[in-house]
Amino acid sequence: METRGRVLACITAMATLGLPALGVAAQCPADDHKGGETCIPANSAVNTGLNRPPGANDDVSSGYVPGDLWQAAGHVWRATTLTPGAAQWTAVPTSHAPADTFGPHAVFAGGPTRMVSTYSGPAVDIETTAGGQTVATTLNIRPDGMLDTATLNRVLAARDAGTFATVTRVYDQTGHGNHLVATPGRHVVHIGAVQVSGQETLSWGEINGPGGFVLPQTLKVPTNSFFFGTTGTYASSNSGYSAFPVPLMLGQQGQEFKVFMGSYTLDGFVHVADMRSPDQRTDLIISNDPAAFGLSATPAGYRLENGNNHAVLGGALPEGSFSGGYIGYNADGGNWFEQGRNTGQWTGIVIADQAATARQEQDFEAAAAVAGNHMPQLRDTFVAIGDSRTEGFGLSDGTNWPCLMQRYARYKSYNFAVSGATTKQMLDMVPAAEALARHPGRKVAVVFGGFNDHLHQIGTGETVRNLGQITRRLKKAGYHVALLDETMTQGAPRTAVHNAVEDGKIPADIELDLFSTGEPLSDVLDQTKWLADTTHPNQAGHDIIARNVWQNIANSLGQ
Predict the structure, then answer these.
(1) Which of 483, 343, 472 lies closest to 419 in space, CA to CA?
(2) Number of Cβ atoms within 10 Å of the Cβ of 277
(3) Which pTM does this prediction carry?
(4) Phi first, then psi: what are they for 357, rounded to 5°?
(5) Count of CB atoms situated within 10 Å of the CB of 364
(6) What is the pLDDT confidence band of residue 242, given thresholds at 50, 70 and 90?
(7) Which of 38, 169, 270, 377 makes the best surface tag, with the fewest CB within 10 Å?
C-alpha cells in the first residue's frame, strides 16, 4: 500500500488561498457587537462557478433533475427540461416572503426576519444582563421589513462580558396570536451570536443546554395535514450530545409527532416519530449550509425537502389533531432525552395547518433562497465524521469548526459528528456519506476520532481497523479523504493512528497534524485554545481547526 506523508498544518498567511482574515465573514456587515459574532457562509461570489444564471449545460449530466431550484443574485430558476446540452430553466417569481405561500393556513410564522410580507411589528423579546441586572427588550421588524438591529447592537454592547442575549418570546407574524414562549427555566436560545447570510438567527448549541419554545394550545393542526419549515442552517446533520436533536414536537406525550436527526444509530438521516412508531427513518439528510427545511404530513405519509433534496416516507396517517407542543426542545423523555440539543441556527419558522402542495413546497424553498441567499445548485460536498471535538462540545450556538469553515467558500456541508462517539459508532455515519456521494460534484471528507475508544475498552487495533474501514469506504464512494491526527490528550491513540496511516492501514489521502510539538494546538494545557478538561478545543481552538483544515482541502473542492 502507498504510504502517505503527514502534513504539518501550520498557520500560514490566509492570503495564499485568497481567504478573508479569520473572524471576518465576507457576506456579513461590519460587526460592532460586543464580543463579535459568527457570520456564515462565505459571500456567494466566492463560488464563481455557480453564482450565475443557469445555462444550457446545467443539465441531467450535472446531476440536476426537473424541479430543482437555482438561486443567484436574488433571482430563482426552476429546471424544466434537462436534455444534455439543451437544459431549460424557467424563472420563478419570488416577490413574497417564505410564509406567504400558505396564506391563511400559516398558523405560525416568526423569527428575526420578516416571514409574512405585510408584517411589521414585534419580532422577538430578549433578555440580557447588564450590571448584574436583567434587561428585557423587544426587537421589531421595521416597516421596511428589516430587523431593528440598531437596538440589538446597543443592547449587546451594554451586556455584561461573557453573557448572551436569550430569546424569551417569538411573535407570530400571521395574526393568529400563536406566539412562542421560551420554556420556563430553559431560556437557552440566543440571538446576536450567529448570522446566516447577514441575518440574525435563533441559535442553539451544545453549551446552551436543552430548551426552546412552547407552542400554545391554540395552535392546532390535523395529524395528517400540516407543514413545518425552517430557514437558516443546522449546525449538525446528526445526533447531539448523546441524544438526538428534535427541532419540533407537535402534540403532547403519548399523542405526538416529532422530527429529529440521527436517532441513536447516529446514522445522519432525518427521522420522524408519530403514533405508529417512535422512530421512522427517512432518506433525507439535513445539510449544514444555508437551506430551507420543510416537512409536509399528508394522509399518505410525509414529504420532506431540504434545498434540492427530497424524500418521501409512505404510510397512511390517522385522522385527528395535534394541539400545542414544542419548538427545538426535547421535553418529554426524562433525563436521557433531555440531553438532546437542537442544532438550529434559524432565521425563521413556519407552521401551516395544511400540507403543502408540490408547488407550495417549491414556492417556500424559492422565497427562502432569495431571503437567505441559499444556493441549492451547489454540487461540491464536504463531510465531517467524528466525535465531540467536531460536533462542538463546550461551544455555544453550534459554532463548531465545520460550521466556521463555511466562512471561506460555498459548498454543501454535512457534519455527522456526535459527542461521545467511538470509531464503532462513526462507522454508522458512513452510509449517509455514501448516499450523498451519489450526487455529482467534488467530494471531500475529514475523519477525526479515536479518543473515545479507550473509554469504552476498545483496543487500538480495533480503532485502527475501524478508521481504516471508514476511510476505505469513503474513498470508494469518491471522497478525497483527510484524516486529522489524534491529539496530545492523555489516552488518545495518537501514535497508533499515525503509524497506521504511514503503514497504509488507514489509507487516507492526506494526514493533517495540528497537535504535534510546534503546531498550533499542541499544548492541551493552553486554556486560550483548549477547555480545562484538556480534551476539547474551545472556540478559539475550533477557529484554528477550521482555518487549517480549509487550507489543506480547499484545492480538492476547487477553491
Answers:
(1) 343
(2) 11
(3) 0.93
(4) -75, 170
(5) 26
(6) very low
(7) 169
